[in-house]
Design a protein that fits this description.
This protein is mainly alpha-helical and about 110 residues long. It contains three helices and no strands. It is about 80% helix and about 0% strand. Helix 1 runs antiparallel to helix 2. It has two domains: about 60 residues; about 40 residues.
Length: about 110
């Protein structure tokens, strides 16, 4: 089912406004109105993103994650940061070696 991007955008905007209203009127940590508005917003966003892609071969810069993906992604980010630090430390060691080689040849 192909949705027109304009109609999907209108639903997304309405979902954003409903989510804001629900959040502003929150009654506790797991307020069912906020949870419902959150899900409607997520669904509206996915519909808009798909409609935009179908019509114009374009996407938004946003990504939705579920709780399981969040935990997995955080672990992946931590691993990537560790790898980046190891790479930087390796580069510093290489620079130290280059400097000592320059001193010896002078």
């Amino acid at each position: 089912m192909t949705t027109e991007p304009r109609a999907a955008l209108d639903r997304l905007i309405a979902a954003l406004e409903a989510h804001l209203s629900a959040a502003a009127g929150r009654k506790g940590e797991a307020d069912p109105a906020v949870v419902s508005a959150y899900q409607v917003l997520a669904d509206a966003f996915e519909s808009y993103d798909e409609a935009l892609y179908d019509a114009y071969d374009e996407v938004t810069p946003f990504v939705l994650y579920d709780d399981a993906e969040d935990a997995s992604d955080e672990d992946d980010e931590d691993d990537a940061e560790d790898d980046d630090l190891e790479d930087l430390e390796g580069e510093e060691d290489d620079e130290d070696d280059d400097e000592s080689a320059d001193v010896r040849t002078s």
